[in-house]
């Protein structure tokens, strides 16, 4: 079957990996998500994954701590998540490489763009950890940056809601879901898709983002094959 998107960058938030507890790692949840990734891979997609770290730590909510240091802790949190996802994918028989934006050579490869692309071409899943390697950024921005670098066709932002709404659907039952959106609208209306740095990077580099819910991991394969799910944000 022909795929709609050949090379995708999948953003997995830390929260998605934590199951019902919202903190730490939930092995069953991670296995389910990885089953969804495998199904998408079997369709022929090349998959790079950027993992978040919010299930352990977010620099911006660290109170008194110096922000740079707080963000370094956040970046290390993403590395733990990357290893957990790598392990689950390997258990499913997939070939995986973890690359980190901060050097930790005993644990993973350093991020090298050309090498990441080579892995993808060979059918390996590449997991990108430690965000951009810089404080004051988010893993959403890292997703935009890496997607642009590896010439991804699209970013899949797998979240806990099934798309982008005009207001928080958990608080407002009358919230309206968008099927499509432009980046200008996202930025002007401050819609909670991703932070503005990430949204601006996607807009400037003509990178679409599909936002959908990861509570149904089969959505990843559906999205790869072009089924209409979630909210598509594009130019
Ligand atoms: N972080 C950072 N630079 C980056 C990416 C992430 O400093 O390029 C830190 C930041 O503290 C952030 C934390 O890592 O809060 C975890 O990432 P994020 O909040 O994006 O994770 P998510 O909310 O997607 O789980």
TrEMBL record:
It catalyses: UMP + ATP = UDP + ADP. Its main location: cytoplasm. UMP binds at residues 53, 71, 132-139. Keywords: Allosteric enzyme, ATP-binding, Cytoplasm, Kinase, Nucleotide-binding, Pyrimidine biosynthesis, Transferase. The keyword Calcium does not apply. InterPro entries: AceGlu_kinase-like_sf, Asp/Glu/Uridylate_kinase, Uridylate_kinase, Uridylate_kinase_bac. ATP binds at residues 11-14, 54, 58, 159, 165, 168. Gene3D superfamilies: Acetylglutamate kinase-like. It is found in: Cytoplasm. Residues 19-24 are annotated as: Involved in allosteric activation by GTP. Residues 6-213 form the Aspartate/glutamate/uridylate kinase domain. Allosterically activated by GTP. Inhibited by UTP. Its EC number is 2.7.4.22. Pathway: Pyrimidine metabolism; CTP biosynthesis via de novo pathway; UDP from UMP (UMPK route): step 1/1. Coiled coil: none annotated. Belongs to the UMP kinase family. Catalyzes the reversible phosphorylation of UMP to UDP. This is Uridylate kinase. The gene is pyrH.
């Amino acid at each position: 079957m022909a795929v709609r998107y050949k090379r995708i960058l999948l953003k997995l938030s830390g929260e998605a990996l934590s199951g019902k507890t919202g903190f730490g790692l939930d092995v069953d949840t991670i296995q389910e998500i990885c089953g969804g990734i495998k199904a998408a891979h079997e369709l022929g997609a090349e998959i790079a994954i950027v993992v978040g770290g919010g299930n352990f730590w977010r620099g911006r909510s660290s109170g008194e701590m110096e922000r740079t240091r707080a963000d370094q802790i956040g970046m290390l949190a993403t590395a733990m998540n990357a290893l957990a996802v790598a392990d689950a994918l390997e258990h499913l028989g997939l070939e995986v490489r973890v690359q980190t934006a901060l050097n930790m050579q005993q644990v993973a490869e350093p991020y090298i763009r050309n090498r990441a692309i080579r892995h993808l071409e060979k059918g390996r899943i590449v997991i990108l950890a430690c965000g951009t390697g810089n404080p004051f950024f988010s893993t959403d921005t890292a997703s935009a940056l890496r997607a642009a670098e590896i010439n991804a066709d699209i970013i899949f932002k797998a979240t806990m809601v099934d798309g982008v709404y005009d207001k928080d659907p958990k608080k407002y039952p009358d919230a309206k879901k968008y099927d499509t959106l432009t980046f200008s609208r996202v930025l002007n209306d401050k819609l909670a898709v991703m932070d503005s740095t990430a949204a601006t990077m996607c807009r400037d580099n003509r990178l679409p983002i599909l936002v959908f819910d990861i509570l149904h991991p089969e959505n990843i394969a559906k999205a790869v094959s072009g089924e209409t799910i979630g909210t598509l944000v594009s130019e």
